[in-house]
Amino acid sequence: MGFRDPLYWLYERRLERKLDSYEIPRHVGVVLDGNRRWAKTSGLARVEQGHQAGAEKIFELLGWCDEVGVQVVTMWLLSTDNLTRPAEELDPLLEIIENTVRRLQAEGWRVNPMGALDLLPDSTARVMKEAGAATSGNSGLIVNVAVGYGGRREIADAVRSLLLAEAAKGTSIEELAERLDLEHIAEHLYTRGQPDPDLLIRTSGEQRLSGFLLWQSAHSEFYFCEVFWPAFRRVDFLRAVRSYGARSRRYGS
């Protein structure tokens, strides 16, 4: 471990102590933004070095979440829009994602793949599905890995899944329309059975969600952090949790 500024350490400890009096979010969603910009500002020769540094940061984040008692973490690693990137940029990124998911599986986290897996290359989709199946019985922190993910696509997939499930039971469109409510759709989302995210964090200074957890974030608290994702520190995470705990949640009112 490298040298740590004593003032930084004291400030981090102060934040930790304050958390004892705050409510801890059960579910934290994170938009891991800024890998490419971090690589450029750090003078790295290749963009994928930024993505690799961002992948390493994921495991630090999960450790921090586990320490404070977060139950579910959703990480947006790749959007459906990103799938249109040139192969020379997309292929190294997908390889990093595959290696990250394998490591998540090896670390014993409960991995829940989410996204349009049918749009992903076969190898990436297979790694995602295998990790989900192999860790489905694990206890502890649930890690939702959003790859090939889009919020609108998730809602469309949920409605499609609902219609197919009801059709298989012989339900007519008219019957479904009469009794359809929000919970019916929620039961077919990628995060079904999980609490909605209490806190959504986006790094890199962008103050938008870009469709991340579009349905589930109706009552979420947002925290936008200026730092690029690979440079995200434990103190930044503690600040986000403190900010959440200090707010009076009004659930949209």
From TrEMBL:
Example of a GO biological process term: polyprenol biosynthetic process
Lineage of the species this protein comes from: Bacteria, Bacillati, Actinomycetota, Actinomycetes, Streptosporangiales
InterPro entries according to UniProt: UPP_synth-like, UPP_synth-like_CS, UPP_synth-like_sf
Assigned keywords, A-Z: Magnesium, Metal-binding, Transferase
Cofactor(s) demanded: Mg(2+)
Family of this protein: Belongs to the UPP synthase family. Z-FPP synthase subfamily.
Cofactor: how bound: Binds 2 magnesium ions per subunit.
EC class name: transferase
Species this protein is from: Nocardiopsis gilva YIM 90087
Binding positions for substrate per the UniProt entry: 34-38, 46, 51, 79-81, 85, 202, 208-210
Any one GO MF annotation of this record: Z-farnesyl diphosphate synthase activity
Assembly with partners or alone: Homodimer.
CC terms in the record's Gene Ontology section: plasma membrane
Record's function text: Catalyzes the condensation of isopentenyl diphosphate (IPP) with allylic pyrophosphates generating different type of terpenoids.
Active site: 33, 82 (proton acceptor)
Residues the entry annotates as binding Mg(2+): 33, 221
Protein name as catalogued: Isoprenyl transferase
EC number: 2.5.1.-
